[in-house]
Write a structure and sequence with these properties.
mainly alpha, 2 helices, rod-shaped
């Protein structure tokens, strides 16, 4: 319980409104900073990596198919 003479803290709607407005300004400022450029750059790098992953997968599939064909021809030529 409260000690004699202590009163509970009172926060008015005006104080809440003022704090919300300050936060809106800070968020707006963050949107215009270098942070958004870093995110865009990060997404560009991820897309580039994804392209290489798909290319590497395609190359590996082609090598596997060609290798299988070569091995098959070698076994056929050896009479296997």
């Amino acid at each position: 319980m409260n000690a004699p003479g202590d009163s509970p803290a009172v926060i008015t709607l005006r104080e809440v409104y003022d704090i919300v407005q300050e936060m809106r300004q800070e968020v707006a400022l963050l949107k215009t900073t270098e942070l958004t450029k870093d995110v865009d750059d990060h997404e560009t790098r991820l897309r580039s990596l994804e392209k290489w992953v798909w290319r590497a997968g395609g190359i590996a599939a082609a090598i596997g198919a060609a290798g299988g064909a070569v091995v098959s021809q070698v076994f056929t030529a050896l009479g296997g």
